[in-house]
């Protein structure tokens, strides 16, 4: 149990009672030594630590970002998905909390045991469907009358998003998710016993002008084999043990060396009045502040890199590098 923090008024009242004899200090010590008892509800067993819940939340925050990118590309409209909450509750409570008719996708998580549920609020599901079929993304709830074509379109949309789920969990476990079932009535789903603890990840979802929730139900049996990995200690240890392989360095070097950058050479500068600028005509000559005997400066993204001299290569204007500029930009004249 968390320690209670007393306010200043409560501290003053306690000191006053002790000094006046209304309260005995020895009695307080005896009460402190008594065992503190907390009621435990076995129907609502908490099988995940706060540390593990935080790890699951981090994984799904990454997953929400991946889903946002995926659905934005698929639906070609504004999409925003974020984690609203991560809770552990009995499976029965999860089933009671979702609508009686909704969109349910059931995925296996091979090689992990068990299956997980994606519950998509009808407002969101139909906004997606309307957008895919060429509409503006309006939401019309007719979940009880889904045609076979509409069911297939929805299933395919979420089935193609499984690569994002795989990537989000790759830091903890290599999984190969697969769509097993598509259902609209949660009463027909009995993945685990009613009292089994499940983690429910709720995602706030906005698609165009429609908004709703996507709930991910993950039974304890699915996460049990990888529970030790859902800890800060494991994540920190994994980060410190990461080392790049030689082939990764080689690939990274090749990519950097083949990267193209824009460079420019400044021939010189000058300043004139607006009046002189307006009166410029053919054959007028502007005197620059750059001497022909001094090297020019080659820049990239306004950063001076080399001293160069102008010339030609074939029939093209070119520059020859003389030396590298050390210590930043040259002095402006």
Automatic annotation (TrEMBL):
Cellular location(s): Bacterial flagellum basal body; Cell membrane
SUPFAM superfamilies named in the record: CheC-like, Surface presentation of antigens (SPOA)
Transmembrane region(s): none
Protein's UniProt keywords contain Cell membrane: yes
Protein origin, superkingdom: Bacteria
GO molecular function: cytoskeletal motor activity
Domain Flagellar motor switch protein FliN-like C-terminal: 255-325
Pfam families on file: FliM (PF02154), FliMN_C (PF01052)
Keyword entries, A-Z: Bacterial flagellum, Cell membrane, Cell projection, Chemotaxis, Cilium, Flagellar rotation, Flagellum, Membrane
Membrane topology: Peripheral membrane protein
One GO process term, biological-process aspect: positive chemotaxis
One GO cellular component term: bacterial-type flagellum basal body
Record NCBIfam families: fliM_switch
Family the UniProt entry places it in: Belongs to the FliM family.
Protein name as catalogued: Flagellar motor switch protein FliM
Organism: Pelagirhabdus alkalitolerans
Lineage: Bacteria, Bacillati, Bacillota, Bacilli, Bacillales
